[in-house]
């Protein structure tokens, strides 16, 4: 088994001077946890049978759970940029494929909170989360934790919390532990399988996944299940670390008064449309549906489950409203609490985009029932998710009105914000090695 590294590379990012309100006027502290590549349908609280997530499931019971949360991209950089800016990828411009970072003029959630006097810190897995891509805007401390062990990331975050006084804080924790390669501890993998005797190793490397997906023949079902089991075991390891985070917050008397958001940037393909252990290249629901659970301060609304479609761009406005702050006008999302506190919220449309070279604007536009994937040369495919949740049959000729309606919504949303400035990024050799290990560079 490949040993896990625990090297921590520090990077400090300064935040400019701002006029902050006194502590008594600030809202509750906030923790945002994003587990890269985590599918909601592999968590118990979303109906999964395997024992992947006992700690997360208990957290769900104390939270508002969103059944249909939609990411704005099936890849790390543009999706997280949407989470932190409440903007579509079309409007924030952050792109690994185009080597572009988040422009300085874009406002982030961290910048808004820092302006209100919050202490801000992020501990991320690097790669497409490297600060060179601009995601560090607004964080007084932004550290790349060079390990895929979420437990190490949790410890670094807690150490930072212990350095604070009674100040309000925003802590962002990100981990690639569930992202390929899948390399669970043997005793954890044993929770999911004990009798696999096929050709695949218990460590599913990026190279192995690439070979499998490039092969002409279909992978045997037992081998696919083995890959799924290694993925599930990685989730169980994340779950244990998340439980330690919650216990540590309780020990510090921080758990009850804070707001804690748990989500992911995208899912993972596990055989639904021909690929296993991969993402970034399609816009099907196995990649765009993400977990979203929000524990509001003092457990407000605990146990509520929201069936309506919501989006990653709604996270930042929801955080700001919960702490008593108004979201900037440039934010595109809504306060999700309005879904149960008001009857005036119209049905939402979610737009997601592939991270591709300029000109290849391959996007998905969906509402609660229908989903339109807009391909090259103005071709499109429409799926009726109520009757075809697996997205196997194109119904665009049967529902031309829905095609036109979704296209009109798409064009309207794109025209609602200006085109972002192009901020060119040149990754150094060290970052390129990180990205190669994650499968982004061959």
Q: Could you outline the blueprint of secondary structure elements for this entry?
A:
Layout: E1 7-9, E2 30-35, H1 54-61, E3 64-70, H2 76-85, H3 89-92, E4 100-101, H4 109-115, E5 119-124, E6 141-146, H5 150-162, E7 169-175, H6 186-189, H7 206-214, H8 221-251, E8 259-263, E9 269-270, E10 276-278, H9 285-288, E11 289-290, E12 292-295, E13 305-311, H10 315-322, H11 338-341, E14 350-353, E15 363-366, E16 370-374, E17 380-384, H12 400-415, E18 423-424, H13 429-437
Parallel strand pairs: 2-7, 2-8, 3-13, 5-6, 5-7
Antiparallel strand pairs: 1-6, 3-11, 3-12, 4-18, 8-12, 9-10, 14-15, 15-16, 16-17
Helix pairs in contact: 5-8
Structure description:
- With 442 residues, this protein is α/β, with parallel strands linked by helices.
- It has one domain (7-12, 27-343, 422-437): Alkaline Phosphatase, subunit A.
- The chain has helices spanning 54-61, 76-85, 89-92, 109-115, 150-162, 186-189, 206-214, 221-251, 285-288, 315-322, 338-341, 400-415, 429-437; strands at residues 7-9, 30-35, 64-70, 100-101, 119-124, 141-146, 169-175, 259-263, 269-270, 276-278, 289-290, 292-295, 305-311, 350-353, 363-366, 370-374, 380-384, 423-424.
- Strands 1, 2, 3, 5, 6, 7, 8, 11, 12 and 13 form a ten-stranded mixed beta sheet that branches. The protein has a four-stranded antiparallel beta sheet with strand order 14-15-16-17, with helices on one face.
- Strand 16 and strand 17 (380-384) form a beta hairpin.
- Helix 5 (150-162) runs parallel beside helix 8.
- The longest helix has 31 residues, at 221-251.
- The model is unreliable at 1-19 (pLDDT under 50).
């Amino acid at each position: 088994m490949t040993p896990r590294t625990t090297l921590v590379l520090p990077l400090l990012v300064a935040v400019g001077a701002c006029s902050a309100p006194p502590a008594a006027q600030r809202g509750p502290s906030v923790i945002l946890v994003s587990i890269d590549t985590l599918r909601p349908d592999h968590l118990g609280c979303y109906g999964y049978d395997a024992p992947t997530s006992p700690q997360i499931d208990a957290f769900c019971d104390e939270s508002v759970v969103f059944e249909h949360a939609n990411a704005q991209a099936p890849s790390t950089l543009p999706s997280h940029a949407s989470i932190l800016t409440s903007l579509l990828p079309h409007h924030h411009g952050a792109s690994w494929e185009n080597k572009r970072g988040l422009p300085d003029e874009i406002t982030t959630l961290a910048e808004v909170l820092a302006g209100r006097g919050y202490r801000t810190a992020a501990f991320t897995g690097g790669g497409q989360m490297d600060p060179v891509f601009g995601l560090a805007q607004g964080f007084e401390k932004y550290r790349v934790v060079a390990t895929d062990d979420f437990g190490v990331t949790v410890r670094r975050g807690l150490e930072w919390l212990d350095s604070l006084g009674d100040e309000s804080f925003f802590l962002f924790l990100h981990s690639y532990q569930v992202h390929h390669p899948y390399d669970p501890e043997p005793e954890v993998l044993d929770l999911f399988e004990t009798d696999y005797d096929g050709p695949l190793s218990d460590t599913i490397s990026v190279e192995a996944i690439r070979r499998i997906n490039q092969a002409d023949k279909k992978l045997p079902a037992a081998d696919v299940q083995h890959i799924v089991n290694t993925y599930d075991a990685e989730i169980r390891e994340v779950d244990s670390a998340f439980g330690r985070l919650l216990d540590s917050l309780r020990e510090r008397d921080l758990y009850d008064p804070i707001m804690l958001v748990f989500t992911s940037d995208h899912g993972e393909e596990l055989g639904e449309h021909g690929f296993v252990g991969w993402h970034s290249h399609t816009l099907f629901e196995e990649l765009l549906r993400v977990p979203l659970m929000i524990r509001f301060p003092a457990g407000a609304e605990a146990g509520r489950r929201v069936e309506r479609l919501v989006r990653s761009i709604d996270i930042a406005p929801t955080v700001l409203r919960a702490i008593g702050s108004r979201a900037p006008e440039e934010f595109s999302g809504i306060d999700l609490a309005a879904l149960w506190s008001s009857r005036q919220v119209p049905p939402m449309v979610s737009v997601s985009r592939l991270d591709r070279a300029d000109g290849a604007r391959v996007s998905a536009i969906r509402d609660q029932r229908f989903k339109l994937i807009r391909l090259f040369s103005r071709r499109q495919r429409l799926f009726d998710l109520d009757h075809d949740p697996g997205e196997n049959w194109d119904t665009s000729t049967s529902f031309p009105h829905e095609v036109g309606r979704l296209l009109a919504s798409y064009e309207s949303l794109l025209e609602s914000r200006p085109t972002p400035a192009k901020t060119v990024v040149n990754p150094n050799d060290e970052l390129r090695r990180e990205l190669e290990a994650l499968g982004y560079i061959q």
